[in-house]
Amino acid sequence: MSDRTTIRRLPDKAVADRDQLNAVLDAGLVAHVAITTDEQPFVIPCGYARDDDRLLLHGSTGSRLFRTLVAGAPTCITVTLLDGLVVARSLFESSMHYRSAMVFGRGAALSGSDKERALDLLSDALLPGRREDARPPTRRELASTTVIAVPIDEWSLKVSNGAPEVVSDDEGWAPWTGIVPLRLQPLEPITHEGGEPPAYARRWQR
What we know:
The protein is α+β, with helices and mostly antiparallel strands and 206 residues long. It is built from five helices and nine strands.
């Protein structure tokens, strides 16, 4: 725990369990990666995967984000899973169920077999089962792709999963209250070419 990973707003929602952090990171698909260049902050969405105790990010060698990370700039990476809407008696007390992870650190560019293994892990995390069918990357494609590994050493996790709050100002008001669950759910695959969707694509629905 460091000063910048200490949760100050609603600290009772802080979670210090590493297994729960890993579960959140494994369930997400998109991370928001923050950098600052020329005193201008940027937050950029990026597909990612967790490789044990590090996060893997991949993108174009020409990307400002990846050029900045390769140069050793510090970053803050966030992954948020939105699990539901919390409908309280008042709009003020209404909120959301969420699991939000934050990782601080500096990344390092991968090369050679470590880079190729990382790309395999990214493929397996984002499109499980697809790697065996897809055309392998060419040398040109590999050369134009940067893979960054960020160690998961400094992190925080905040989880909100409680019932709607009832406060003294709610007295005399009795509207419906409750939770509206939300989830990201793959739908029926839409074929572009090649006949019926493969079994692994249908498994993504489950």
